[in-house]
Amino acid sequence: MKKTTWEKNQLKWGLLFISPTIIGLLILNIYPMIMTFWQSLNKTGDFGKGYKFVGIANYTKMFHDPEVWESLWNTFKYALVEVPLSVIIALVVAALLNRKMKGRSIYRAIFFLPMVSAPAAVAMIWRWLYNSQYGLINHIFGTTTNWISDPNIAWLSIAIIGVWSAIGYNVVLFLSGLQEIPRDYYEASSIDGATGVKQFFSITLPLLSPTIFFVVVTSIIGALQVFDLIYMVMSDNTPALGKTQSIVYLFYKYSFVNGNKGYGSAIVVLLLAVIMIITAIQMKLQKKWVYYN
Amino acid sequence: MTKQAREKLNTTIIHIVLILLSATMLIPFIWMILTAFKTQTEAASINPFIIFPSVWHWENFTAVISTYNFPTLYLNTLLLIFFRVICAVLTATMAAYAFARLEFKGKNFFFGLVLLQMMIPSQIFIIPQYIMISNLKATNTIFALVFPGLVTAFGTFLLRQSYMSLPKDLEEAARLDGCNIGQTFLKIMAPLTRSGMIALGIFTAVFAFKELMWPMIVCTDLSHSTLSSGLARMQGQFSSNYPQLMAASLLACIPMIIIYLIFQKQFIEGIATSGGKL
To answer: Which of A66, A67, A39, A64 is nearest to A54 (CA)?
Structure first.
């Protein structure tokens, strides 16, 4: 009767195997999640000590706080540049690399380098490249632009770093998606006289659409959480900070610099809501352009 | 034009495009290296604009290594990565096997918790996690650095996929040979998910290496910082000494880049199969 013992033992072993993970999730994630919601309904006392229930006061304050709206808008602007550019450039690179050619693995390795570099270091490097007096970029283009201190340009300069950092990751995912597309499709359409560019639009794009969808969804979620680059590139006192600080930056500032954890919690709940809504919209829209076979 | 000639032209154009794009990817790194070896005067010289340092100065490296105690930063980062990877692979591989291969009451509910964690942005957890660490009086410790990564919902999900792709017969055979569930898992099933575990390990290591906000919050002493959070602190203090900042950036990046260049295949496969966002 081994089979029944096995079956009976499943509960015992199952619970034993999942218990470290589940206990960990409860302590590290589920309880904190509830606490964050709870804190967002509380006012943090002076010096960040103690709290008092205030209902939705933090949320009403937030909806009337121009700094919150501005940082939300900054985050969207960043995502609207970073995501499409990093996806499109990566698509082109992946399509070009998806063939037998010399140097393929070298190119792939180069594009992937930023992925294994610390964002803190990447941001410092670009800060130096962007330096208005001595920077390489102004020297090459013969400009005198204040790339990171001009409030109108700074967000774009940061988005460019974001694109540069993300391309390699997207290339790797697209390349592995491209390898799933059967070669015969291309051969058949070649016989019909289709050329490279036409094949890209009629075969590659539709068949790669599930991968593109995955990359777009995760990239948007990542972009909406942008923090490291802004924290490292922007100085605390630059006038451009207001026009570049993201929602997570604002969350960090309120929670860990100003010690107002209640308001910080309300801001991060807003971030959660924004991410949920945007992801839900994409899930709806995917039926219109993603092909699953 | 013959077909061959056209093919050749195509390949040339492709290479030109790729070389231009690769140059854009590489120039920031090259500029970091060149600046790290310059004096401050050379780095700030515009007329003439200096590309290569006249003498390769190693002083910037020795200066930041001693001022910022780089050996400690390396050690902290290494310990963080070591414990995060061990914890993630151990806990996730057990939970993943149970979720993929065992039938028991409450399984779907518990797996729901895993999915819930994956859907929620990590910033939601940070304030209470910080409060826990601070109540435990554990700020500025390796434990504090490792803390949010003791378990991993993402890793559990990833390895569950690995187990689900294994054939059912394997377990049947082990069972008929008299293995209990624990033995079947340990001796038969877990070794077969090696590539999944490697992917998770690589992902966890790179993620821990790049993390900035958490180490900045819980390890405020430089002697307990990681490379990432140490760099953030240096920039705050030394915001204009670019040769030293570039030397520090180079020192922070080089170990991971070397490991990546050695294990390139595993890195790229690991990232591609895990699909985790770094």
So the answer is: A39
pLDDT of residue A155: 95
pLDDT digits (tens, 9 = 90+) for B127-144: 999 999 999 999 999 999
Angle at B17 between CA B13 and CA B22, to 5 degrees: 145
Are B157 and B34 contained in the same domain? Answer: no
Closest approach of B98 to chain A, Cα-based (Å): 5
Does this complex have an ipTM over 0.95?
Answer: no
Helix (H) or strand (E) holding B104: none
Closest CB to B235: pick one of A28, A39, A232: A232
pLDDT tens by residue, B166-198: 988 888 888 888 888 999 999 889 999 999 999
Containing structural domain, residue B20? 3-60
Range of the domain at A22: 2-56
Cα separation, A68 vs A71, whole angstroms: 5
Strand partners, B46: B49
- On whether any CB of chain B is under 8 Å from the CB of A143, the answer is no
Query: Which CATH number characterizes residue A156's domain?
Result: 1.10.3720.10
Check if A262 contacts B (Cβ < 8 Å): no
For the segment B146-173, the average pLDDT, to the nearest whole number, is 92
- Tell me whether B151 touches chain A (CB under 8 Å): yes
